[in-house]
TrEMBL record:
This is Putative ATP-binding cassette transporter. The keyword Amino-acid biosynthesis does not apply. It comes from Paracandidimonas soli. Residues 479-491 have a biased composition (Basic and acidic residues). GO terms for cellular component: plasma membrane.
């Protein structure tokens, strides 16, 4: 074998194969995206990432990965030829050729290692950039138009959106690339090794009939039959993998709720109920896991039988030609390797069926997620318009998703400095009215006039974000807004350096250090403002802990959280504020103090409150009383 000529031929082969494969690859993607359900799902989910209008980099990256994949195929072919040369030299006791083969192996192995490392880096880089775009794309759509909230109004909601954004995106990106490159590798390798096996195989006598190049036809028939049976055995794995993702996510969500509502559950001594719920959900996980094991056992067992049978098949077929000295030992070994690789490549769709089943389940979950977002975006929204600093309702009617009337043709205007109290029986629509004013309630008619900017809503249970007490006090704004808009990776770099040098062996300590590095510094003016706000709402004892990172939603009592929300109100200085039973956890003295504080520091603010206590009457000269009971009636009292 002339290896100098073979290396030149390899370069030409790589160029021609690359151009042909590139054209076929993109044509196939186009046809799959137009003609198959999962192809349309794929393109709808991530087509924007590969759009040349956005950037050419993803397409160029894919082209480079495709080239490296074909390079790997050609390297396998060269190694197959090398085995022929090496074993033939052993059979012929040709020492010079043997040592030449050893040097040749060193060159081929070096090229192979370099190619593999480059391929690994480029593929991982491609996946990371793809994940980054997918995460931002889905996260933006999930947050836009408050879809994360409005999906609860859909007839069929979406389960475990957190998992779909975090875990399924990762699986989708990794599986898409590995499966697509696996298919290309299998097809191109099949062509290459078919040519090799065609040249090495001889006639095959079968039932008295001599078949020229019979080994080639045998391997194709063998794999085709095995693939049909494998697909029939493995088809249920698609549904089982989908259920596996769902049941695990449901179990994880139940565990998160146990931690989130730990205090309430402890007061109720609800451990038995929660334990029963957790065990029942875990039982679903285990039951589905056993179903996957049983089905996988059948699938893998069948694949093992097929693979082991194929291991000795080429030796049996070529043995007669070898012993009659029609072929050399190198030819026999190369035949075995070529047959094995051809069988392996043809079996790709059989052996990768379980991976494809998992991929289909992931794709279905992400497609269902995006479909729910689209439905949420299509839900109607209240007609809200801005007219200076006016706050008014014009013939506003509200109803439940089932069509029951909550409020009919309400018209009123809230004047600066004249707070309005909304009251009425439970279920009459008080909180729903605030949701409509906020633009959250889709089942409404009429018009809502409110300031375009400068509105703040305080709920009965304030939201306490993760982070420092200062972050919670300024939420949804932040004195470190520039750190949020322009994230500084220094914390990441510092934590990576620390982990590389083994400076911190405690991973929790490492993460805490990274978080501390990312925390934006506060100016002295900000400190004074924040401390004064805490003192005004009678939380001055927490002033020294402003920059302490903790789970403040658990540390602070509900009454303290509500006072912290009043601190937000004082710092935000909104044009209009809406308080939904925002003092329900305070005693009457604290409630009176908070409302007096607001009226003193923000006398011209338009204030709307929802509440039941008579003590609120003194702070609200106007009352909107909802009749409830499905009548939609209302009255305004001065």
């Amino acid at each position: 074998m002339d290896w100098n000529a073979e290396l030149v031929n390899s370069a030409w082969w790589l160029l021609k194969a690359y151009l042909v494969t590139l054209v076929i690859f993109f044509i196939s993607l186009f046809l799959l995206a137009r003609s198959t359900v999962w192809g349309r799902q794929f393109w709808a989910l991530t087509g924007g990432y590969f759009s040349p209008k956005r950037s050419w980099k993803p397409i160029l990256g894919l082209c480079v990965i495709l080239l490296l994949t074909l390079f790997a195929v050609r390297m396998d072919v060269l190694f197959s030829m090398w085995y022929n040369t090496m074993y033939t030299s052993l059979q012929n006791l040709d020492e010079a050729t043997f040592w030449f083969a050893m040097w040749l192996f060193a060159i081929l192995a070096s090229i192979h290692v370099i190619r593999a490392l480059i391929d690994f880096y480029i593929q991982q880089s491609f996946i990371i950039h793809w994940r980054k775009w997918l995460n931002e794309h889905l996260l933006s759509r999930w947050l836009d138009n408050q879809a994360y909230f409005r999906t609860q109004y859909l007839e069929k909601g979406i389960d475990n959106p957190d998992q779909r954004i975090q875990q399924d995106v990762t699986l989708f990106a990794e599986s898409s690339l590995s499966l697509s490159m696996g298919v290309i590798n299998a097809i191109v390798s099949t062509i290459a090794y078919t040519l090799i096996l065609w040249g090495l195989s001889g006639p095959l006598a079968l039932l008295g009939i001599e078949i020229p190049r019979g080994m080639v036809f045998m391997v194709f028939a063998y794999v085709l039959i095995a693939t049909v049976f494998a697909i029939r055995i493995g088809r249920p794995l698609i549904l089982l993998n989908f259920l596996n993702e769902r049941f695990n996510a449901d179990y994880r969500y139940a565990l998160v709720r146990l931690r989130e509502y730990a205090e309430s559950i402890a007061f109720y001594a609800g451990e038995k109920v929660e334990g029963a719920l957790l065990r029942s959900r875990f039982a679903q996980v285990i039951g589905n896991a056993w179903a996957i094991v049983r089905r996988s056992l059948q699938f893998l067992g069948f694949n093992f039988v097929v693979s082991q049978t194929a291991a000795v098949f080429p030796f049996i077929i070529q043995a007669q030609r070898f012993f009659s000295k029609q072929i050399s030992l190198g030819d026999l070994v190369q035949t075995s390797q070529a047959f094995g690789r051809l069988q392996e490549n043809l079996s790709f769709f059989r052996t990768a069926y379980d991976q494809f089943a998992s991929y289909r389940a992931t794709l279905d979950r992400l497609s269902g997620f995006t479909s729910a977002i689209e439905q949420a975006h299509r839900l109607p929204a209240p007609a809200i318009r801005a007219d200076g600093t006016r706050l008014a309702l014009e013939n506003l009617s509200l109803s439940t998703p089932a069509g029951q009337v909550l409020l009919r043709d309400l018209s009123l205007e809230v004047a600066p400095g004249k707070p309005l109290l909304i009251r009425g029986p439970s279920g009459s629509g008080k909180t729903t009215l605030l949701r409509a004013i906020a633009g959250l309630w889709p089942y409404s008619e009429g018009a809502i006039v409110r300031p375009a900017h400068g509105t703040l809503f305080l709920s009965q249970k304030p939201y306490i974000p993760l982070g420092t007490l200062r972050d919670a006090l300024y939420y949804p704004d932040s004195p470190g807004r520039e750190a949020i808009d322009n994230p500084d990776p220094k914390g990441y770099r510092q934590s990576r350096a620390a982990s590389d040098s083994s400076a911190l062996k405690n991973l929790d300590g490492l993460l805490s250090a990274a978080h501390a590095l990312n925390a934006p510094p506060a100016s002295s003016a900000t400190d004074e403002t924040a401390v004064k706000a805490l003192q005004d709402v009678q939380l001055g004892h927490l002033a020294s802990r402003l920059d302490e990172t903790a789970d403040w939603g658990r540390i602070l009592s509900l009454g303290e959280q509500q006072r912290l929300a009043f601190g937000r109100l004082l710092l935000a200085k909104p044009v209009a504020a809406f308080l939904d039973e925002a003092t329900s956890a305070m005693d009457e003295g604290l409630e009176d103090a908070m409302y007096r504080l607001v009226r003193q520091q923000l006398p011209e603010m338009m204030l709307v409150s929802v509440g039941h206590r008579n003590t609120l009457f003194a702070h609200h000269p106007a009352h909107l009383v909802l009749a409830g009971k499905g009548s939609g009636k209302w009255e305004i009292h001065d």
